[in-house]
Design a protein that fits this description.
Elements: H1 3-28, H2 35-53, E1 55-60, E2 68-72, H3 78-86, E3 90-94, H4 103-109, E4 113-115, H5 121-135, E5 139-142, H6 163-168, E6 172-180, H7 198-207, E7 211-217, H8 228-249
Length: 252
């Protein structure tokens, strides 16, 4: 068997070992670490995971310092790894992720805030949690589409959680994500959509050649003067414009 055919298997084996390392860090080190030290561990682990998976990150733009609500388009579970490699941040994620074996526990250890998207009333609870975290100086990231897309465009944004930035007067910073590979400027291998299982998605990722995450961090935006739906539309339009031009010109 050629090295090319073995490469996905080797990557999967390395990924399994890397997950074991994360479990040991969370179990043995996190209980004795403060929040900053835990986030530093998570950042290093995410960077290493991307290397193990064979994903290169190319970034342009600079993330804000201090409390910020980051908003990005959502393509895959890889998005979190990519964004964490750019800047350590806490995420808002759907509650389903919490039930994933091992991974759900690891994500929770990273300070993720979980929302039950099927319950509209849960959004208010999470808005308060996000606002509290922002007031404490945390950097929080969310995917307002509420689900993943194929990466070629941006789905409609849910505006509820943006209220946390408006209430706290904390800047919002949009991030445009696009994955490319050796075959496609918008990689189908990266998309985690439809009925695809996590293992199917993982295999597609490790099998891709030259998978690259292009990350554009747009300038920060003050939420003052915006109603949350208008803010959502502005952020969505900014990301969509960057993706539209990026697919032709090379995002990032």
């Amino acid at each position: 068997m050629s090295v090319g055919r073995l490469r996905p298997v080797i990557r999967l084996l390395h990924c399994g070992l890397h997950i074991v390392r994360a479990v040991l860090i969370c179990a043995l080190i996190f209980p004795f670490s403060d929040a900053a030290a835990r986030m530093a561990h998570v950042e290093r682990w995410c960077r290493r995971t991307l290397t193990v998976l064979g994903i290169e990150v190319r970034r342009s733009g600079t993330p804000n310092e201090g409390a910020t609500l980051f908003v990005a388009n959502h393509v895959s579970w890889i998005d979190i790894l990519v964004m964490m490699s750019v800047r350590p941040m806490r995420f808002v994620s759907k509650s389903d992720v919490r039930s994933w074996p091992v991974i759900g526990w690891l994500v929770a250890c990273g300070g993720t805030l979980f929302i039950e998207r099927k319950r509209r009333s849960d959004a208010l609870r999470v808005v308060h949690l996000v606002a509290e975290a922002l007031r404490a100086g945390d950097q929080i990231a969310m995917f307002p589409e509420g689900t993943t897309s194929d990466g070629r465009g941006v789905l409609p944004f849910h505006a509820n959680l943006l209220q946390a930035a408006i209430a706290t007067s904390v800047p919002v910073q949009a991030i445009a994500l696009r994955f490319a590979d050796a075959r496609e400027p918008v990689s189908a291998a990266a998309a985690y959509i439809g009925d695809m299982t996590l293992m199917q998605s993982l295999w597609a990722v490790v099998s891709a050649r030259d998978l690259t995450a292009h990350v554009v961090v747009l300038p920060g935006l003050s939420p003052q003067g915006f109603e949350r739906r208008a803010l959502a539309e502005r952020l969505r339009a900014d990301i969509a414009t960057k993706l539209e031009h990026g697919a032709d010109e090379g995002l990032g």
